[in-house]
Write a structure and sequence with these properties.
Blueprint: E1 2-6, H1 10-21, E2 25-29, H2 33-42, E3 44-46, E4 49-51, E5 54-56, E6 66-69, H3 73-80, E7 90-92, H4 99-106, E8 111-115, E9 118-123, E10 126-131, E11 135-139, H5 144-152, E12 158-160, H6 164-185, H7 191-194, H8 196-213, H9 220-229, H10 236-242, H11 253-262, H12 268-281
Parallel strand pairs: 1-2, 1-6, 2-5, 6-7, 7-8, 11-12
Antiparallel strand pairs: 3-4, 8-11, 9-10
Amino acid sequence: MDIMIIGGGAVGLLSAVFLKQAGCNVMIRTRTEKQAEAINEDGLKMDGEIWEVKASTDSSSWKPEAVIIAVKQYHLEEILNSNIPAEVPWLFIQNGMGHTELAEKFHSAPLFSIVTHGAVRKGPAEVIHTGSGKFIIGGSVKSGFIEMLEKTGAPMNAEWTDNIQLQLKKKLLVNAVVNPLTVLYETRNGYLLENTKAKEEAYKLFEEAAEVLNMPKSSWAFVEEIIESTKLNYSSMLMDYKKGRALELESINGWIIKEGTNQNIAVSENLRIVEAVKNKVSSRVIRRD
């Protein structure tokens, strides 16, 4: 199957390798010519292996049978207004929740995924697989594309869910806690359970997010489990902060604040933490790549 991946970040590159391992023909649409040239010239590297993948900033001549959109939310609208064949399945992989409504404006049956694998992009053409996980996928229609992904088995481990909204909410609960706090403390995920003050802040963020998302307080056990299982990892937002890139605050905690305000739910801790993170990065030069 010919699959186009839009986005050359860690998840996009990881997806490309998994699909190549499954025998797919993979094309990556990158934001920069520099990354496309690196992938085309050197191949895509992971775990000591090199995979031949086509890459370009221009996908107008490509005829994929499915599209995976793995970009930050702040790039999403620009991407959706570009040249993407609408007659094939689109699979969205983003943090937060706001992308679901946007996706439905551009595609009649969008698919959504959360990825529990650990991955870090080491360079323009190399990704490190830091922990095994799953691609949990859902939407209104289970297409042949998804059935193919399920059949690939390990290491991708794609599985279908009939309730992707629940999975997106659970992922947002984790992101709303882990991402901003790891930036503030500039630390690995596990610190949020080890430090008393950080854990108190984490739980306050969780309480507000859970109320906004109509999730039970017992969901805190799930958040703790994820933090514990990734305790040695650095969050994606902290990695973005360290590399001088824009942060996804608006699509994660910003979404919680917006929805909480609409529902007349107090979100003072999210407001405080967002303001603290913004103050921390205010002196940085932001790169939107």
